[in-house]
Every structure is written in C-alpha cells, then in structure tokens.
Amino acid sequence: MVQQSKLHPRNRHNKGYDFTKLIKAVPELKAFTQKNPKGQTTINFQDDRAVRLLNRALLNAYYGVQFWDIPDGYLCPPIPGRVDYIHYLADLLAEENQGNIPRGKAIKVLDIGTGANLVYPLIGQSEYGWQFSGCDIDPISIKSAQQISRANRLKIDLKHQKNRNNILKGIIGPKDFFHLTMCNPPFHASAKEAQKGTMRKWKNLGKGRSSKLNFGGQKAELWCPGGELKFITNMIEESRDFADQCSWFTTLVSKKDNLRPLKMALKKAKVTDFKVVDMAQGQKISRFLAWRFKPNAID
Q: Residue 246 is part of which domain span?
C-alpha cells in the first residue's frame, strides 16, 4: 500500500493503491509492479505502459469501467487527483442543496478539454450518476473518447471544438444548460516550455534527464499560446455570453501566482460570486477556481 494523504474524504484512494485488488482487476499489471525502498508495492511511473495499466485497473476496480485505453503519446492522468476535483465539485453543488449532494442524470456537467482519456466523465457518472458532455479541439481525442464511451455503454455527448480561438462558443448551444463546467487547461505556453517542465520534474525526483513528457500528452493537452493564464482569462471572458446557461463555471489553476490576475479578470467580467477551492495530494497542493453570474438553486 503506497500511502497518500489529504485527499478528499470521499476519495476512494485515500489509503493508497491496493495492488492486490488492482491486479485482480487487471492481471497484466502484476508484471509491472516493483518494491520501493520501504518494501511497498508500486510501479515505475516513468514507464508509460505501467501507468496506463494502473489507470485501467483503477477505473475498472473502483468505477466499473470495463474498457479503457488511449492512443500512444496521449495524456495518462493520475486518477486520485482527478477524483478529488469531482468530489469537490459535488460539495460545491451541495452548498445550495441543503447540504445534500445532488445525484442523477438531472445534473448536467460539461468537461472542457475532455481529452482522449475521458476520465472526468467516467468518474463523475460512476460516483454521482451525473450526465456529462465533453469537448476537445483534437479530433483524435474525441475519437478515442467516443470509443471509450461506446465500449462502456455510456451516453456522453462529445463535441469537436473546430475553432481553436473558442472555448465555450460552438459547444454550448442556445438551449443547453449546465450545472457545472469543469476544465484542466493546458499549463504551458509552448512545447519547449512543456519539455523544460518535464525535465525539471524528473530531476527533482532524482530520475535524471528524460525526453518523455510526464504521463504523455499532446500539444492541445499540455500547452497553448499564452499558457494557463491566457486560456482561463479567455474562458472567463467567454463565460459572460453563457451567464444564464451555467450555475458554476470552474477550472483547475495549477499556478498559484495566476490567481491574482484571474481574480482581476473575474472582476472585469462582473461575476456575482467566485471561489478558490484548495485540494491536496500528498505534498502537492492544487486548486480550482469557480465563478458564476447569478445564484442558482439545484432544481
């Protein structure tokens, strides 16, 4: 059992990875396990195949996902942190539902940049039964997400964002309404910056130089012009046009220093309310930003 800490209280991975259970779900994972210096079972997180099998086992053992795979080189996200985002969003909705988490298909969620892995919709539907839609600018990601959705007999509306200058426009239709939008935006401003970030991570972990991007990832998943700050600023600006069609707009914010300019952007957009919700996984602190233009009770 590899211990983790400070995950959301409802996070199924609070006690670490139960490799006995995971190997039972995906027997192929056993060949990629090893012992760490403390004698605990783990995997080599530099090995793409090991990380992919770990994710497949986690999704199967805990969330009932019978089929999950992604194209080579695409982002293979760490599941526990993704699960935390879902649970904290549930808490956000519960605040205006007399403390009760709303469940079922009546709750509509839009995953912006759902990626080839479709992880957020898979977890959110399993944990709370919410109805998800997803979008992405990469056609291969959409094709992969559709394959995962069909193989698991899920009804997830997936749209290709054809205009790279838009985020919400062209995705949210005139008759659509969402209780939540969620997003894990591209962090870096360029491919070169993304590569430097990965090399710095591996150096800090004592792994030496590596040409691989951490957990994989394509251009649209890891970087965009202006990086995270520009992307979220654009999202805030666009959200004004859909103020009546979403209860809460939310996005992860990886860099704490970006919060100050983002709060200024929210003030400029004349939002009614916003929150910064902190999350943690081990020593890593993350957060998401949530904003809205008018209070909406859960119907």
A: 70-292
Q: Write the pLDDT tens digit of every residue in 14-63.
A: 999 999 999 999 999 999 999 999 999 999 998 999 999 999 999 999 99
The residues that bridge with 223 in the sheet, in sequence order, are 188
Looking at residue 141, its pLDDT comes to 96
pLDDT at 2: 43
Judge whether 107 lies within some domain. Answer: yes
Q: How far apart, in whole angstroms, are the C-alpha atoms of residue 132 and residue 118?
A: 10
Q: Domain for residue 7, yes or no?
A: no
Q: What is the CATH number of the domain that holds 283?
A: 3.40.50.150
Cα end-to-end distance, the chain, whole Å: 41
Tokens 């983002």 locate to: 262
Is residue 26 a part of any domain in this protein? no
- Please give the Cα distance from 63 to 158 (Å, whole number): 20
pTM: 0.87
Tell me whether residue 24 is in a domain.
no
| pLDDT-flagged residues of the chain (< 50) | 1-4, 188, 190-191, 194-195, 197-202, 204-205, 208-215, 217-219, 223
